[in-house]
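S.,

As promised, the MTE run. Input:
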Amino acid sequence: MNDPTPLAGQHLRLTRRYFLQLGAAGAASLGACPLWAQAADGEDIAAEDALAEQLAKLQYLTREERFLNAGRGSPPPHTLPPEKLREVGLHRDTWKLEVVPDPDSNAKVESPLSEARGTALDWQGLMKLAETKAVRFMTVMTCTNGRTPFGMGLWEGVPLRDVVWMARPTANVRRLYYYGYHNDDPKQQFRPSLPIGRVLEDPPGEHPVILCYKMNNRLLTPKRGGPVRMIVPDGYGNKSVKWLQRIVLTNDFKANDSYAEQNNDTNSRVKTCARFLHVPEKVKARQPAPITGVAQVGSSGLTKVQYWLCRQGTDLPADDPYFTKAAWQDAEILPPPTDWGGDLPDGKLPPVAGQIDPASGKPLVWPMRYTIAHWAVLLTNLAPGKYDLRCRTIDAAGIPQPMPRPFAKSGHVTIQSVPLVVEG
Ligand SMILES: Nc1nc2c(c(=O)[nH]1)N[C@H]1C(S)=C(S)[C@@H](COP(=O)(O)O)O[C@H]1N2
Ligand SMILES: [Mo]
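Predicted complex:
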Protein backbone atom coordinates (compact mmCIF):
# COMPACT_ATOMS: atom_id res chain seq x y z
CA MET A 1 0.00 0.00 0.00
CA ASN A 2 1.71 3.18 -1.07
CA ASP A 3 -1.39 5.34 -1.22
CA PRO A 4 -0.11 8.59 0.30
CA THR A 5 -3.56 9.53 1.57
CA PRO A 6 -5.21 6.44 3.03
CA LEU A 7 -7.36 8.48 5.37
CA ALA A 8 -8.56 10.72 2.61
CA GLY A 9 -9.33 7.57 0.65
CA GLN A 10 -11.24 6.27 3.61
CA HIS A 11 -13.40 9.36 3.68
CA LEU A 12 -13.92 9.14 -0.06
CA ARG A 13 -15.08 5.52 0.19
CA LEU A 14 -17.39 6.41 3.02
CA THR A 15 -19.02 9.31 1.26
CA ARG A 16 -19.17 7.42 -2.05
CA ARG A 17 -20.99 4.64 -0.27
CA TYR A 18 -23.45 7.18 1.05
CA PHE A 19 -24.08 8.70 -2.36
CA LEU A 20 -24.37 5.28 -3.98
CA GLN A 21 -26.95 4.29 -1.39
CA LEU A 22 -29.09 7.11 -2.64
CA GLY A 23 -29.62 5.06 -5.78
CA ALA A 24 -29.42 6.10 -9.42
CA ALA A 25 -29.53 9.81 -8.71
CA GLY A 26 -26.71 9.41 -6.24
CA ALA A 27 -24.53 7.38 -8.59
CA ALA A 28 -25.10 9.86 -11.38
CA SER A 29 -24.05 12.69 -9.13
CA LEU A 30 -20.55 11.27 -8.86
CA GLY A 31 -20.19 11.58 -12.58
CA ALA A 32 -21.56 15.10 -12.37
CA CYS A 33 -18.63 16.16 -10.23
CA PRO A 34 -15.43 15.84 -12.31
CA LEU A 35 -13.14 15.76 -9.30
CA TRP A 36 -14.94 12.82 -7.83
CA ALA A 37 -15.29 10.89 -11.04
CA GLN A 38 -11.58 11.16 -11.78
CA ALA A 39 -10.53 10.40 -8.26
CA ALA A 40 -12.80 7.39 -8.18
CA ASP A 41 -11.20 5.99 -11.33
CA GLY A 42 -7.78 6.57 -9.83
CA GLU A 43 -6.62 7.94 -13.18
CA ASP A 44 -5.98 11.55 -12.46
CA ILE A 45 -3.40 11.92 -9.73
CA ALA A 46 -3.65 15.72 -9.67
CA ALA A 47 -7.40 15.56 -9.13
CA GLU A 48 -6.86 12.90 -6.49
CA ASP A 49 -4.37 15.16 -4.74
CA ALA A 50 -6.72 18.13 -4.91
CA LEU A 51 -9.52 16.07 -3.46
CA ALA A 52 -7.20 14.53 -0.87
CA GLU A 53 -6.19 17.98 0.26
CA GLN A 54 -9.79 18.84 1.07
CA LEU A 55 -10.56 15.46 2.55
CA ALA A 56 -7.51 15.55 4.80
CA LYS A 57 -9.33 18.01 7.02
CA LEU A 58 -11.98 15.39 7.66
CA GLN A 59 -10.17 12.26 8.67
CA TYR A 60 -11.45 10.54 11.80
CA LEU A 61 -8.13 9.87 13.50
CA THR A 62 -5.43 12.17 12.14
CA ARG A 63 -2.01 10.79 11.32
CA GLU A 64 0.83 12.57 13.02
CA GLU A 65 2.22 14.21 9.86
CA ARG A 66 -1.17 15.69 8.99
CA PHE A 67 -1.94 17.05 12.45
CA LEU A 68 -1.98 20.85 12.52
CA ASN A 69 0.44 22.35 14.95
CA ALA A 70 0.13 25.43 17.12
CA GLY A 71 2.14 26.77 19.99
CA ARG A 72 4.59 29.27 21.35
CA GLY A 73 8.33 28.90 21.39
CA SER A 74 11.31 30.42 19.71
CA PRO A 75 12.62 28.02 18.68
CA PRO A 76 9.56 25.74 18.95
CA PRO A 77 10.71 23.14 21.50
CA HIS A 78 10.09 20.18 19.18
CA THR A 79 12.68 21.55 16.70
CA LEU A 80 15.54 21.43 19.23
CA PRO A 81 18.29 18.94 18.31
CA PRO A 82 18.02 15.53 20.02
CA GLU A 83 20.90 16.17 22.45
CA LYS A 84 19.30 19.45 23.55
CA LEU A 85 15.91 17.75 23.97
CA ARG A 86 17.61 15.23 26.22
CA GLU A 87 19.39 17.98 28.17
CA VAL A 88 16.19 19.95 28.87
CA GLY A 89 14.16 16.93 29.94
CA LEU A 90 12.21 16.42 26.74
CA HIS A 91 13.36 12.85 26.31
CA ARG A 92 11.86 9.88 28.11
CA ASP A 93 15.23 9.21 29.81
CA THR A 94 15.44 12.69 31.32
CA TRP A 95 11.80 13.81 31.63
CA LYS A 96 10.64 14.87 35.09
CA LEU A 97 7.30 16.22 36.27
CA GLU A 98 7.00 18.40 39.35
CA VAL A 99 3.79 18.77 41.35
CA VAL A 100 4.37 21.56 43.87
CA PRO A 101 2.42 24.07 45.98
CA ASP A 102 2.19 27.65 44.74
CA PRO A 103 4.79 29.63 46.76
CA ASP A 104 2.49 32.66 46.51
CA SER A 105 -0.47 30.92 48.16
CA ASN A 106 -1.16 28.91 51.32
CA ALA A 107 -1.82 25.61 49.51
CA LYS A 108 -0.89 22.68 51.77
CA VAL A 109 0.87 19.85 49.99
CA GLU A 110 2.53 17.18 52.18
CA SER A 111 4.67 15.35 49.64
CA PRO A 112 5.46 17.61 46.69
CA LEU A 113 6.95 15.90 43.69
CA SER A 114 9.99 18.07 43.16
CA GLU A 115 13.42 17.99 41.60
CA ALA A 116 14.93 19.56 44.74
CA ARG A 117 13.64 16.73 46.96
CA GLY A 118 14.45 14.08 44.39
CA THR A 119 10.78 13.12 44.30
CA ALA A 120 9.76 14.40 40.83
CA LEU A 121 7.84 11.88 38.74
CA ASP A 122 9.94 10.35 35.97
CA TRP A 123 9.01 8.29 32.91
CA GLN A 124 9.38 4.98 34.76
CA GLY A 125 7.15 6.26 37.54
CA LEU A 126 4.54 7.29 34.99
CA MET A 127 4.73 3.92 33.24
CA LYS A 128 4.32 2.17 36.59
CA LEU A 129 1.10 4.12 37.17
CA ALA A 130 0.02 3.37 33.60
CA GLU A 131 0.08 -0.38 34.33
CA THR A 132 -3.06 -0.03 36.42
CA LYS A 133 -4.46 3.40 35.58
CA ALA A 134 -4.02 4.00 31.85
CA VAL A 135 -7.07 5.23 29.94
CA ARG A 136 -7.69 5.85 26.25
CA PHE A 137 -10.20 8.01 24.43
CA MET A 138 -10.66 9.81 21.15
CA THR A 139 -11.05 13.57 21.23
CA VAL A 140 -10.61 16.38 18.77
CA MET A 141 -7.82 18.95 19.13
CA THR A 142 -9.39 22.24 18.24
CA CYS A 143 -8.28 25.82 18.86
CA THR A 144 -10.53 28.54 20.30
CA ASN A 145 -9.68 30.66 17.27
CA GLY A 146 -9.38 27.90 14.66
CA ARG A 147 -11.80 27.55 11.79
CA THR A 148 -11.40 23.80 11.42
CA PRO A 149 -10.23 21.20 13.91
CA PHE A 150 -6.44 20.61 14.08
CA GLY A 151 -6.92 16.87 14.16
CA MET A 152 -8.40 14.06 16.15
CA GLY A 153 -6.33 11.77 18.31
CA LEU A 154 -6.79 8.55 20.20
CA TRP A 155 -5.03 9.71 23.34
CA GLU A 156 -3.63 7.47 26.05
CA GLY A 157 -2.48 8.56 29.48
CA VAL A 158 -2.78 8.42 33.24
CA PRO A 159 -5.52 10.47 34.92
CA LEU A 160 -3.97 13.64 36.30
CA ARG A 161 -5.74 13.10 39.63
CA ASP A 162 -3.63 10.03 40.37
CA VAL A 163 -0.47 12.11 40.21
CA VAL A 164 -2.03 15.02 42.12
CA TRP A 165 -2.93 12.62 44.96
CA MET A 166 0.68 11.34 45.07
CA ALA A 167 1.69 14.85 46.18
CA ARG A 168 -0.79 14.60 49.11
CA PRO A 169 -2.58 17.94 48.97
CA THR A 170 -4.46 18.42 52.25
CA ALA A 171 -5.90 21.94 52.28
CA ASN A 172 -6.26 25.24 50.45
CA VAL A 173 -6.16 23.94 46.91
CA ARG A 174 -8.80 25.40 44.61
CA ARG A 175 -7.05 25.36 41.26
CA LEU A 176 -3.94 24.14 39.55
CA TYR A 177 -1.91 25.66 36.78
CA TYR A 178 0.74 23.98 34.68
CA TYR A 179 3.27 24.57 31.96
CA GLY A 180 5.88 22.95 29.81
CA TYR A 181 9.39 23.65 28.65
CA HIS A 182 9.58 27.19 27.29
CA ASN A 183 13.26 27.76 26.43
CA ASP A 184 13.77 29.07 29.97
CA ASP A 185 12.23 32.34 28.83
CA PRO A 186 9.28 33.43 31.00
CA LYS A 187 7.80 35.34 28.04
CA GLN A 188 7.44 32.07 26.15
CA GLN A 189 5.66 30.29 28.97
CA PHE A 190 2.21 28.97 28.07
CA ARG A 191 0.30 28.36 31.27
CA PRO A 192 -3.32 27.17 31.48
CA SER A 193 -5.20 26.45 34.68
CA LEU A 194 -8.09 24.26 35.82
CA PRO A 195 -10.37 24.13 38.86
CA ILE A 196 -9.23 21.26 41.08
CA GLY A 197 -12.72 19.77 40.87
CA ARG A 198 -12.40 19.20 37.12
CA VAL A 199 -9.32 17.10 37.81
CA LEU A 200 -10.52 15.08 40.79
CA GLU A 201 -13.73 13.70 39.32
CA ASP A 202 -15.51 13.48 35.96
CA PRO A 203 -19.18 14.01 35.15
CA PRO A 204 -20.78 10.73 34.00
CA GLY A 205 -19.78 9.88 30.46
CA GLU A 206 -16.88 12.35 30.41
CA HIS A 207 -13.22 11.48 30.16
CA PRO A 208 -10.59 12.39 32.75
CA VAL A 209 -7.91 15.03 32.27
CA ILE A 210 -4.82 12.96 31.50
CA LEU A 211 -1.04 13.08 31.47
CA CYS A 212 -0.84 11.84 27.92
CA TYR A 213 2.09 9.86 26.46
CA LYS A 214 0.54 8.22 23.37
CA MET A 215 -1.46 9.31 20.34
CA ASN A 216 -3.00 6.79 17.97
CA ASN A 217 -1.31 4.03 19.98
CA ARG A 218 2.21 5.38 19.36
CA LEU A 219 4.42 7.27 21.82
CA LEU A 220 3.96 11.03 21.53
CA THR A 221 6.43 12.68 19.18
CA PRO A 222 8.23 15.87 20.27
CA LYS A 223 6.04 17.73 17.78
CA ARG A 224 2.84 16.51 19.40
CA GLY A 225 4.16 17.58 22.82
CA GLY A 226 6.07 14.48 23.93
CA PRO A 227 7.26 12.89 26.03
CA VAL A 228 4.17 13.98 28.01
CA ARG A 229 1.45 16.54 27.39
CA MET A 230 -1.78 17.36 29.13
CA ILE A 231 -5.01 16.41 27.38
CA VAL A 232 -8.15 18.12 28.64
CA PRO A 233 -10.83 16.28 26.66
CA ASP A 234 -13.63 18.82 26.96
CA GLY A 235 -11.44 21.91 26.60
CA TYR A 236 -10.10 23.78 23.62
CA GLY A 237 -6.47 23.13 22.72
CA ASN A 238 -5.17 25.87 24.97
CA LYS A 239 -5.73 23.64 28.04
CA SER A 240 -3.67 20.81 26.56
CA VAL A 241 -0.11 21.88 27.29
CA LYS A 242 2.72 20.26 25.37
CA TRP A 243 6.19 19.35 26.75
CA LEU A 244 4.66 19.30 30.25
CA GLN A 245 7.08 19.63 33.19
CA ARG A 246 5.42 21.41 36.10
CA ILE A 247 2.05 21.47 37.85
CA VAL A 248 1.39 24.02 40.57
CA LEU A 249 -1.38 23.53 43.15
CA THR A 250 -2.76 26.84 44.32
CA ASN A 251 -5.36 28.42 46.54
CA ASP A 252 -5.73 31.26 44.06
CA PHE A 253 -9.33 31.04 42.92
CA LYS A 254 -8.82 32.96 39.71
CA ALA A 255 -7.89 31.55 36.34
CA ASN A 256 -4.37 32.77 35.54
CA ASP A 257 -4.16 31.30 32.03
CA SER A 258 -1.64 33.04 29.77
CA TYR A 259 -4.01 32.58 26.83
CA ALA A 260 -6.61 34.72 28.63
CA GLU A 261 -4.25 37.67 28.27
CA GLN A 262 -5.16 37.67 24.56
CA ASN A 263 -8.85 38.17 25.33
CA ASN A 264 -9.63 34.45 25.04
CA ASP A 265 -12.39 32.79 27.07
CA THR A 266 -10.17 29.95 28.24
CA ASN A 267 -12.88 28.24 30.29
CA SER A 268 -15.18 27.61 27.35
CA ARG A 269 -15.69 23.95 26.58
CA VAL A 270 -15.52 22.71 23.00
CA LYS A 271 -18.55 23.85 21.04
CA THR A 272 -20.63 22.13 18.39
CA CYS A 273 -20.30 23.43 14.83
CA ALA A 274 -20.29 22.35 11.18
CA ARG A 275 -17.88 23.04 8.31
CA PHE A 276 -17.93 22.23 4.63
CA LEU A 277 -15.45 19.79 3.18
CA HIS A 278 -16.30 19.42 -0.46
CA VAL A 279 -18.58 21.77 -2.36
CA PRO A 280 -18.31 21.89 -6.16
CA GLU A 281 -17.82 25.47 -7.37
CA LYS A 282 -20.06 24.93 -10.35
CA VAL A 283 -22.74 22.39 -11.18
CA LYS A 284 -25.08 21.98 -14.15
CA ALA A 285 -28.76 22.69 -13.61
CA ARG A 286 -30.79 19.65 -12.59
CA GLN A 287 -27.66 17.58 -11.98
CA PRO A 288 -27.25 16.50 -8.36
CA ALA A 289 -24.43 18.17 -6.39
CA PRO A 290 -22.68 16.13 -3.70
CA ILE A 291 -21.70 18.15 -0.63
CA THR A 292 -19.62 16.85 2.29
CA GLY A 293 -18.44 18.34 5.54
CA VAL A 294 -17.30 17.81 9.09
CA ALA A 295 -19.05 18.52 12.36
CA GLN A 296 -17.23 19.17 15.61
CA VAL A 297 -19.26 17.64 18.42
CA GLY A 298 -18.93 19.85 21.48
CA SER A 299 -20.11 19.52 25.06
CA SER A 300 -23.71 20.20 24.08
CA GLY A 301 -23.81 17.21 21.69
CA LEU A 302 -25.00 16.98 18.10
CA THR A 303 -28.34 15.86 16.72
CA LYS A 304 -28.44 17.43 13.26
CA VAL A 305 -26.38 19.06 10.57
CA GLN A 306 -28.38 21.37 8.34
CA TYR A 307 -27.80 23.35 5.18
CA TRP A 308 -29.52 26.33 3.60
CA LEU A 309 -29.25 27.20 -0.06
CA CYS A 310 -30.01 30.86 -0.60
CA ARG A 311 -30.06 32.66 -3.93
CA GLN A 312 -27.52 35.49 -3.96
CA GLY A 313 -29.12 38.90 -3.83
CA THR A 314 -31.92 37.73 -1.53
CA ASP A 315 -32.56 40.26 1.23
CA LEU A 316 -31.41 38.83 4.55
CA PRO A 317 -33.35 39.87 7.65
CA ALA A 318 -31.38 42.41 9.68
CA ASP A 319 -32.79 41.19 12.99
CA ASP A 320 -31.86 37.51 12.51
CA PRO A 321 -28.03 37.37 12.36
CA TYR A 322 -27.91 33.57 12.72
CA PHE A 323 -30.66 32.93 10.15
CA THR A 324 -32.84 31.07 12.63
CA LYS A 325 -35.89 31.69 10.45
CA ALA A 326 -34.29 30.48 7.20
CA ALA A 327 -35.42 27.37 5.32
CA TRP A 328 -32.80 25.01 6.75
CA GLN A 329 -32.88 21.40 5.62
CA ASP A 330 -31.32 18.31 7.16
CA ALA A 331 -28.07 16.85 5.84
CA GLU A 332 -27.06 13.31 6.77
CA ILE A 333 -24.60 12.54 9.55
CA LEU A 334 -22.52 9.68 8.13
CA PRO A 335 -22.29 6.44 10.12
CA PRO A 336 -19.15 5.60 12.12
CA PRO A 337 -16.20 4.40 10.02
CA THR A 338 -15.00 0.82 9.96
CA ASP A 339 -11.43 2.03 9.41
CA TRP A 340 -10.53 4.77 11.86
CA GLY A 341 -7.36 5.79 10.05
CA GLY A 342 -4.72 7.62 12.10
CA ASP A 343 -1.91 5.28 11.01
CA LEU A 344 -2.70 2.96 13.93
CA PRO A 345 -0.21 0.13 14.38
CA ASP A 346 -1.64 -2.84 12.41
CA GLY A 347 -4.44 -0.52 11.31
CA LYS A 348 -6.47 -1.64 14.29
CA LEU A 349 -8.21 0.34 16.99
CA PRO A 350 -7.04 -0.93 20.43
CA PRO A 351 -9.74 -1.30 23.10
CA VAL A 352 -11.28 2.10 23.85
CA ALA A 353 -13.41 1.54 26.95
CA GLY A 354 -16.15 4.12 27.29
CA GLN A 355 -16.39 4.85 23.57
CA ILE A 356 -16.22 1.56 21.67
CA ASP A 357 -18.28 -1.56 22.44
CA PRO A 358 -15.72 -4.38 22.77
CA ALA A 359 -18.14 -6.97 21.36
CA SER A 360 -19.18 -5.18 18.17
CA GLY A 361 -16.21 -2.84 17.72
CA LYS A 362 -18.73 -0.05 17.14
CA PRO A 363 -19.13 3.21 19.04
CA LEU A 364 -21.46 2.99 22.03
CA VAL A 365 -23.09 6.23 20.92
CA TRP A 366 -22.82 8.11 17.66
CA PRO A 367 -21.83 10.82 17.15
CA MET A 368 -19.43 10.91 20.08
CA ARG A 369 -18.99 14.05 22.14
CA TYR A 370 -15.65 15.90 21.78
CA THR A 371 -14.94 14.17 18.48
CA ILE A 372 -15.81 14.82 14.84
CA ALA A 373 -18.46 13.35 12.57
CA HIS A 374 -18.60 13.51 8.79
CA TRP A 375 -21.78 14.59 7.06
CA ALA A 376 -23.05 14.78 3.50
CA VAL A 377 -25.98 15.82 1.41
CA LEU A 378 -26.95 15.53 -2.22
CA LEU A 379 -28.52 18.68 -3.63
CA THR A 380 -30.99 17.91 -6.40
CA ASN A 381 -33.28 19.82 -8.77
CA LEU A 382 -31.10 22.91 -8.75
CA ALA A 383 -32.29 25.82 -10.88
CA PRO A 384 -29.67 27.95 -12.67
CA GLY A 385 -28.30 30.84 -10.65
CA LYS A 386 -25.78 31.96 -8.07
CA TYR A 387 -26.27 30.77 -4.52
CA ASP A 388 -24.81 30.98 -1.05
CA LEU A 389 -24.72 27.63 0.69
CA ARG A 390 -24.58 27.63 4.48
CA CYS A 391 -24.30 24.89 7.09
CA ARG A 392 -25.02 24.72 10.80
CA THR A 393 -25.50 22.20 13.60
CA ILE A 394 -28.31 21.55 16.05
CA ASP A 395 -27.10 20.39 19.46
CA ALA A 396 -28.64 17.77 21.75
CA ALA A 397 -30.86 20.40 23.38
CA GLY A 398 -32.24 21.39 19.96
CA ILE A 399 -30.32 24.67 19.98
CA PRO A 400 -28.83 25.82 16.67
CA GLN A 401 -25.29 27.04 16.17
CA PRO A 402 -23.83 29.46 17.20
CA MET A 403 -25.97 29.77 20.31
CA PRO A 404 -26.03 29.39 23.26
CA ARG A 405 -22.84 31.47 23.06
CA PRO A 406 -22.06 33.51 19.98
CA PHE A 407 -18.91 35.08 21.45
CA ALA A 408 -16.03 34.42 19.09
CA LYS A 409 -13.42 34.32 21.85
CA SER A 410 -15.30 31.40 23.45
CA GLY A 411 -14.61 29.30 20.34
CA HIS A 412 -15.07 29.93 16.64
CA VAL A 413 -18.55 28.77 15.59
CA THR A 414 -19.72 31.17 12.89
CA ILE A 415 -22.08 29.81 10.28
CA GLN A 416 -19.97 29.03 7.22
CA SER A 417 -21.14 30.24 3.84
CA VAL A 418 -19.74 29.16 0.46
CA PRO A 419 -20.77 30.22 -3.07
CA LEU A 420 -22.32 27.72 -5.46
CA VAL A 421 -22.95 28.42 -9.14
CA VAL A 422 -25.60 26.42 -11.00
CA GLU A 423 -25.10 26.76 -14.76
CA GLY A 424 -28.04 26.82 -17.15
N1 LIG B 1 3.73 24.25 25.73
C1 LIG B 1 2.72 24.70 24.97
N2 LIG B 1 1.62 23.94 24.84
C2 LIG B 1 0.59 24.37 24.07
C3 LIG B 1 0.62 25.62 23.43
C4 LIG B 1 1.79 26.41 23.60
O1 LIG B 1 1.91 27.53 23.06
N3 LIG B 1 2.82 25.91 24.36
N4 LIG B 1 -0.46 26.04 22.66
C5 LIG B 1 -1.75 25.41 22.96
C6 LIG B 1 -2.81 25.71 21.98
S1 LIG B 1 -3.44 27.29 21.97
C7 LIG B 1 -3.32 24.74 21.13
S2 LIG B 1 -4.63 25.09 20.12
C8 LIG B 1 -2.76 23.36 21.13
C9 LIG B 1 -2.48 22.83 19.74
O2 LIG B 1 -2.05 21.50 19.85
P1 LIG B 1 -1.38 20.74 18.64
O3 LIG B 1 -0.14 21.49 18.25
O4 LIG B 1 -1.09 19.35 19.14
O5 LIG B 1 -2.38 20.73 17.49
O6 LIG B 1 -1.56 23.28 21.89
C10 LIG B 1 -1.65 23.91 23.17
N5 LIG B 1 -0.51 23.54 23.94
MO1 LIG C 1 -5.09 27.38 20.44
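Confidence is low (pLDDT under 50) at residues 1-9, 23-57. The helical segments are 6-21, 24-32, 34-41, 45-55, 82-87, 123-133, 160-166, 196-200.

- D.
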